[in-house]
Specification:
homotetramer, alpha/beta, Rossmann fold, Argininosuccinate synthetase, chain A, domain 2, five-stranded parallel β-sheet, five-stranded antiparallel β-sheet, 43% helix, 20% strand, elongated, arginine biosynthesis (chains A, B, C, D), Arginosuc_syn_N (chains A, B, C, D), argininosuccinate synthase activity (chains A, B, C, D), ATP binding (chains A, B, C, D)
Chain lengths: 404, 404, 404, 404
């Protein structure tokens, strides 16, 4: 029986050429799989037909937008996932979603290999291949661009030679990956890290510097899940989409950073993620109100490791799954309303309301009604500082103390 | 010999009353110590004379602004210290500065006790007392407001009875602590956490929503120390002051959060810290460019613990000092220029330049000149994901694997 | 209605006197609650009658040995809980067990206060009071020894005056707390930390230096739970008891350490925990065989924090409960047999067998049959070390590199 | 000019063959470098001559035993470095020592490449190559066994063909790496992880089960450095050697474990490290006496990461160097005597004496002279448990509380 290869298919030039290229290189039949994670662009049916026209023996398309929002973006919100305190993991979240569909298609069609269109110096190759090996350790992976040196010039030549139904227009100056959770842009002139980005780079966000009316929004969470906006019930997908629109219109969520890739190099990245940033900002403040201090402090360690693992392509790893349980547990009381002002590139929390709040007005107030017993503090401070005080005595004795 | 008490003196009503109050309660002589950490307000000499007029046997004043900037604010910048990812530790940094002066005065004047004007439900009492016990474990601490139930009404009565030279005007609706690194505001109506702050609350920052011209600034760091602004050499204090002015004028650095106090309660706090936020934002991005990935990842854990310790009043503790060494080491290559746009409440990095950069254009570029050997990636991915892949095989065997 | 106080009752002199003492100090009715966590000693019914004879209005006794083993000792085994890498949390585990029974009794009998017999300088007072406040925040706590200065001499006088049916023989030179998970001993001559313990101190363990035959045992775990010993099915309680006997007979599990108490001081402690140490040693090695590397590395951080929290009395805290979920998840594949030799004070693993093993003979072997593809390593090493290599290049350039 | 390759030379069959093999494969001149890290065996001069006889153009030998002890083993003692809580990093410490000499020789002789004799599935290849790339990023690395498929059979054939002056006797059944800090053994029958090791495997340690007299030793540390044994001043090397003898004679330091290799697989390892285990055990307990609690708790996180980095070959990485500073600082007060009994495979601390002790008899004692103020505890406990108590109240309200 002929070997079968499942290809992660986007409908663009590179992966369209991959269909025939893989067939020639390996003698295998190619099954194209396109997954909609909210990247916009062409209709899935058009993409499906193009795959077949380019030589795929089968072509599958899937609208995975709700799945992506519920199973991938939501845990990122619940763990306030910002890689290097900035990047909301946009592409890192979409890759495992796609991987799951690729593996399902491989099982359905009896394929032994999965192919993707990534280069050999980015993070996405790791996310695809480590994802596949953790979900289906028996499947092989190939990356024609990396493994068969399929450059863009060769791709265009192949395309023209085979008369494939794809436009081979000159490449955009920008290398872009986008989905409903955000948009990543790399480009030649931004590889000089002293250069500032220009407005032309952005699509999901308006210029924050332009004057406009502020937008006030109330986001309701239940157990860390955004469930309503301004009182209207929403799905997670709808919450992201609505906040992409509204926060995007106010210029919220632009990011410009130098980041550490898993392959060991630093790269410069521009991101736009208005909905993601608005939701994480709101979620974080609702945690401040509803999560107990020691749980919150330790959760930062968990959140950081979760973000690193997901960035590093380890979505399906045992550690990532164990951290998920912790994060779920910590979110169980993250319930209530956050009121935010979206304006001038900023998403600013101005109010919180929660039935599961740990903020106790009577303990916090300096007005009458204060129920905090201040006489407890002296003993607390004395014993809280005791081990440091004993060390200070020793240091004085040993002559290694701090000079006063 | 009569006992002597050193009092942390601000010049205001409460601590002025404390002078006589402590004398009456303890029979001790009171030495007033006022420390300028950039809080503004009255002249130190006026404050010194008032202390004497209120009955202090000695009064010492110190301009500690440079000391505060160099020894307390700078390490906070170098550790990107933001408690709960937000608060740049404004008051938490000034307390140990003051503690050091109090202890020095106690030594000089042979005092056995240190007094401060804090209440019994905040963090500052811990910062004073744990600080003193770690620096001078033999000194005792008293807090008249907490320990002798010195309420404001009683203070006013005492003031009038003794005819002290202080205005006993009605208290401001705001409870404020400020210094050159920022300003903290608490107030009655903000104790309802659903209420938004009003413009009246702010002093260090202009309204970010008002239209104005953007301000572009270049901050130069050497080993994590801000040493120049727009090419002009500055001290740390000058850097903070200039950025307070310029970032403050753009509305940068307003914070509104519910935070976890050390005494176990949650409180609502409003902060303004334009210079601090601008400097930390710039420093953080320069770290992204110059600090190796694994060092950067671990430094987040160190930074978080450093911030918690300082917030919790443990400035002079053994762990805090050991973390300082790590942070110094990690900053040794944080050298170069950061260009930022200050505008509309945002401090946005737009360029970085560094002789100690780890960003390698030739490794990062997708253009010609790329020196990254993509053939290395396959082996890397395979072994990087190996332990997770072996676990996936086991899980399939055990029937506990992930469904595909 | 008369107030009611629930007292943690041991049957000994101190808590027997507490019954009447509390009644006199507070005017309340006292309900005595005795909980069997495997401490041995008198029959529960005798203890119950003594409480009533000493003036308790009600007396409840509970055999909580299985509950203690299943709900408190087992999680400690699953998290390899060794405070300061040594102490298996013997007393720290029994306190929350007792707290749960005290709170249940308080609810049943309408009590508003819980009392315990601890002093004011140990950890157990925190474990009782923080446990109660986290389980029943409305209940008050009192500790007569600490709060009413009930010294031993006063207790004996009270006892004789009231003619209570308790022997007031001279106190043992040792202060002891014991249960099925281990035994803790403090004593006057051991407060000199240069003094070695003597044989007289020990009860659960034989002298390891005496010659005897080794004992070989096979312990079977399922999902981290010890379920069989030498092929015979056991409950967790039976596993601990059998290993207390067998490992104790070989002198396993003696500990002598200086430890950090929560109240800020260091103390010297002698422990015996033969079953606990044998079970944790076996569990740890079975984890080595069955838990994926990154999960195992992070679990050390979780295990450490879990142990600190439990030592610090935070059993019922939100963070402890969230960590429990992580630990459960990490234990799901900890299944199989561990063979150990118990001899001369040592519990040494000599064999492991597991259906859920991640040890792969074919990948590990250096003999024929090796399936490890060594050609992958070069790329792995190159990219794994890339960020450090780039930093080294920078350091050479900057003249801050390592001298070779 | 002819290229030059520096080879890590042991004097054994494999690396002797490498000399000619590398010359044939690459056309380069080979410089052999042998480093004595206390592995015992042949005289360095004999090894040097053999290298030349096998075709090396230069041969350098270095007695690096003191360097190894002072610069590599000592930091491991000071960080209580036990990978997976067991393995004292024996081989992981020797590799960077050797790397430093290889790089120095490469610089001296103008070599562009470094070669080592490791296979492609172990940790040591990473330690060599990542070490070299972090110390001398311009040097290339080759591993003939891995890169040129130099199997043992081919090596023997090469040896006989070229008539090299090396015995080609049948390989020992054991694969061994040893140095003064310990000894590692792998072997065919131990690859079945159910098989127990046999006495034949061990060389550094006597059978702990055999009856013999106990040995009592007093180890003196200054700032975490072992400086005297039983009152006699020693170097670090002498301390390790003497304790290898004395602890080894008592069977101390045998380890049998399944461990996680960096390349993603689990392997079974037998180690002997009597001196290392005795020194780390003593050091750890002296830390318990002299290091403040919060510093000690955080140091566990640092120690763990340090051990992982060193195990993973990252000795010369930026993070490892930054952690070194922390560990140095934490050791500054680790001064004093530890008395241990070495017997029956156990190294048991029985006494501690320290001028920099934080153990305070007067605070710890339950006898008269107690200076601990127990009245402080109530306030401490109340505020220490406050955040958990407030959460418990919320949980009761929300109906998600713990059942009592």
């Amino acid at each position: 029986m002929t070997e079968r290869v499942v290809l992660a298919y986007s409908g663009g030039l590179d992966t369209s050429v991959c269909i025939g290229w893989i067939a020639e290189e390996t003698g295998a039949e190619v099954i194209a799989v396109a997954v909609d994670v909210g990247q916009g662009g062409e209709d899935l049916e058009i993409i499906r037909k193009r795959a077949l026209a380019c030589g795929a023996v089968e072509a599958e398309v899937a609208d995975a937008r709700d799945e992506f929002a519920n199973e991938y973006c939501l845990p990122a919100i619940q763990s306030n996932a910002l890689y290097m305190d900035r990047y909301p993991l946009v592409s890192a979240l979409s890759r495992p979603t796609i991987v799951k569909h690729l593996v399902a298609a491989a099982r359905k069609h009896g394929a032994t290999t999965v192919a993707h269109g990534c280069t050999g110096k980015g993070n996405d190759q790791v996310r695809f291949e480590a994802g596949i090996s953790s979900l289906a350790p028996d499947l092989k992976c190939i990356a024609p661009v990396r493994d068969y040196a399929m450059t863009r010039d060769k791709a265009i030549a192949f395309c023209e030679e085979k008369n494939l139904p794809i436009a081979t227009t000159k490449k955009s100056p920008y290398s872009i990956d986008q989905n409903v959770f955000g948009r990543a842009v790399e480009t030649g002139f931004l590889e000089d890290i002293w250069n500032a980005p220009i407005e032309d780079v952005y699509e999901y966000t308006q210029n924050p510097a332009e004057p406009r009316e502020a937008d006030e929004v109330v986001i309701t969470f239940a157990a860390g899940v955004p469930v309503a906006i301004d009182g209207r019930t929403v799905t997670v997908l709808q919450a992201i989409e609505e906040l992409n629109r509204r926060a995007g219109a106010q210029g919220v969520g632009r990011l410009d950073m130098v980041e550490d890739r898993l392959v060991g190099i630093k790269s410069r990245e521009i991101y736009e993620a208005p909905g993601a940033i608005a939701l994480i900002t709101a979620h974080q403040e609702l945690e401040n109100v509803t999560v107990e201090r020691e749980l919150a402090r330790f959760k930062k360690t968990v959140d950081q490791r979760w973000g690193e693992l997901v960035y590093d392509g380890m979505w399906f790893s045992p550690l990532k799954r164990a951290l998920d349980g912790f994060i779920q547990d910590a979110n169980q009381h993250v319930c209530g309303d956050i009121r935010m002002t979206l304006h001038g590139g900023r998403a600013v929390v101005t109010g919180r309301k929660s039935d599961t709040s740990l903020y106790d007005f009577n303990l916090a107030t300096y007005d009458s009604g204060d129920t905090f017993d201040q006489s407890l503090s002296k003993g607390f401070i004395e014993l809280f500082g005791m081990s440091s005080k004993i060390a200070a005595r020793r240091d004085q004795r040993a002559g290694t103390g701090l000079p006063a």
